[in-house]
Amino acid sequence: MSRNILVVYKKNFEDVHDKALNEVRSTLELLSKEMDITLDYSAREKVSRSDFINRDLVIVLGGDGTLTSIAHSVDEDTPVMGVNSHPRELDNDGSYGFYMGSDPNNFKEDIRTALNGKSIINILPRLQAEIVTTSGNIIRSDPALNDLLLANTHQYQPSKYRLQRDKDDKNGGIDCIQYSSGCLFSTFLGQGAWYRHINNIEGVTFPEVEIDNHYLFVSRDLPRNDRKEDGTYWAWTNQKTTFTSDMHRGYVVADGWDETHFTRGATISVSLDGPTLKLLTFRSTIYDRVAYWIDA
């Protein structure tokens, strides 16, 4: 059976990334002599949504930033294999590569495992924001594997908004007006990227049955007198959060990449309704890496 593979790689003129690309390319060229494989390569900066259509496998060579920058273009049924081109365990200046299941040293073995259908398949939920403008237009942000930020586009000005959420199994319903530095939403897996640097939840663990259907929320820099334990300051919830803008101009930023703008009066709903991501790993599941956050 023919396999259609796209390799997206990080290109910043550092030898370590070029070396990793050469190793991946040579391995795939050898495999193409054994298997019916179609190969295409694209630098991260040049890839577009159409490049991902009808692919049997997408290989992302780089670090977590490379993967999150292009993952929003990948259909939820297309497997993604991350290869850390500059592992931190070999160089302190390298990438941690949380989502990267492979590396150049293991790629020869791992790509065969993936093509033989024996890799570990992790189905990861993603956050998405739906913006309804005052004229009734509906715009969806890119799906976020780590986090979504809703804030004033002028970060030196406060974010003003109405915040609403239905009751969940931990909190009652909320409906309040806030002035903060904006709202940050994080998936369970994404909390280590930014969320835990904003909200001190060290030592908090989460029920295993909730990690795929709940997300984290926090109002950044909310005045201390307004920080209540009722879900208005921070929450772990499975309910949609609705944000109604009272700012001249704001934006939604998915995983620190593309911005989707909105104006005063727009209503933004955030939930885990984004398309999932099919991520391949090889020696452990992605959740094994954060077992200390999980209450089994």
Helix and strand content put the structural class at: mainly beta
CATH class of the largest domain: Mainly Beta
Query: How many strands?
Result: 18
Global geometry:
elongated
Low-confidence regions: none
Strand content: 35-45%
CATH-scheme architecture of the largest domain: Sandwich
Helix content: 10-25%
Report the order of strands and helices: EHEEHEHEEEEEEHEEEEEEEE
The major beta sheet can be summarized as: 10 strands, mixed
Q: Could you give a quick summary of the protein structure above?
A:
The protein is mostly beta strands. The protein contains four helices and 18 strands. It has helices spanning 15-31, 64-71, 107-115, 195-198, and strands at 3-9, 37-43, 57-62, 79-84, 120-132, 138-140, 147-152, 159-165, 174-180, 183-186, 206-207, 215-219, 234-237, 241-245, 249-254, 259-263, 267-281, 294-295.
Task: Map the helices and strands.
Elements: E1 3-9, H1 15-31, E2 37-43, E3 57-62, H2 64-71, E4 79-84, H3 107-115, E5 120-132, E6 138-140, E7 147-152, E8 159-165, E9 174-180, E10 183-186, H4 195-198, E11 206-207, E12 215-219, E13 234-237, E14 241-245, E15 249-254, E16 259-263, E17 267-281, E18 294-295
Parallel strand pairs: 1-2, 1-3, 3-4, 4-17, 11-18
Antiparallel strand pairs: 5-6, 5-17, 7-10, 7-15, 8-9, 8-14, 10-12, 12-13, 14-17, 15-16
